[in-house]
Structures are given as structure tokens and as C-alpha cells.
Amino acid sequence: MFSTKPRAKTELDFLAALERGEVVTQATLSRRIGIAIGLVNALLKRATLKGFVKVRTAPYKRYAYYLTPRGFAEKSRLVAEYLEVSLEFFREARRQYQDLLWRAEQSGRKRLVLVGGGELAEIAVLASRDLGVELVAVVDAETNRSSLFGLPVVRNIDQAADWDAVIITDSKRPQAVYDEIKGIVDPARLLAPELLKITLAPSEGLEEGESAA
Fold first, then answer.
1. H helices of 129-201, where?
2. 3-class DSSP assignment, residue 159
3. Which of the chain's termini has less CB crowding within 10 Å, N or C?
């Protein structure tokens, strides 16, 4: 769910990419914003119809897109909307990880490994403060860094020593990560917050109060 940009963020990135009035192609915008060319085309049509963007022709069948005053006003509105949504997401994610970590502590699982080195791992680190748990490592095969958020980074769970439970903090492919890890970790020791929407097989229910979904 987190690999796809929220609507407000996509539209904000789109308008921000146009505000300097550069001569660009739709392919360039696609790479710059990180969305498909078809979506760039749709956003351009919508923004033009709404009066947010104007287009002028440039040499070699290229175009210059620039924001109108209405476009700058819309960009400001989207900034406020995105920040509000981001803050709400942060608060909810932190609440869920705090609850998950507290329940892990209450069940005697106090040495925990995070799987996934993105923003959710950072939120989990923040959520662990003032709790009686210890985060011992971050599993992240996609980084060359030796530490993240003050924790050692390992390439796989086998390299993380002496842990009691695993907490999923991978936002890009949480279901796939869960499915990969459940083959080597007791499902009762594999935890994730509800926001990741991980689906368990009927025969793999976790202990009460420690559901991954």
C-alpha cells in the first residue's frame, strides 16, 4: 500500500516539477516524479483544464509547462493537505508500533529485530523509547549501510543474534516479506501492525493480541 504515492503527494510533486517553467518532455516528468507516463499525461490534461498549468510550444516538438497563479495557489493547498495527511499517518503508525512493542514486552519478548529499513523502521525506533524492549538489529538487504537509526544492519535474519521476535517494518512489500519470513520464523514470533494489512493463512494464527493483520 505504501509503494504507491498518496494522491496529494503525486499531484504536489507534479505541480512542483512544473513551477520553474522548464522545457521538458512527459518522459522527463515521468522519471522526475516517479510515475507512469500515462499518469503524467492525465495530470497535465486535468491541470490544464482546471487552469493550473499553461503550455507553450518549444523547438523540436517539445513543450514548456508552467504554473498559473491558480496553479501556485493549488500547490500551496496541496502542501498543507499532504503535511496534514503525513502527520496523521505518523501518529497512527507510531501508536500501532507502540502497542505492538508493549504487547511483545508483556509476553516476555524484549529483544526485537526490525525487518525493513525505511520510514516505518524509524517510526518503530521512536515508538520503542520508554518501553522495556531492545531493538537489536535492522534486516535490510537493499542498503550498503552498516547501521540505520543507530541499529546495526544485517542482510538476513540469520545474521541477527539472540532475538525474541521479529517485527515487520517493510512498507514496500510487507505481505511478500511476511510470506518469506514465516518459513523460517515461528509465526507467533513474527509481528506486524494492522496498517500493513498482512493476510495470514487460516492455519497460521498468531497468539491472541499479536495478530499481524
1. 174-181
2. helix
3. N
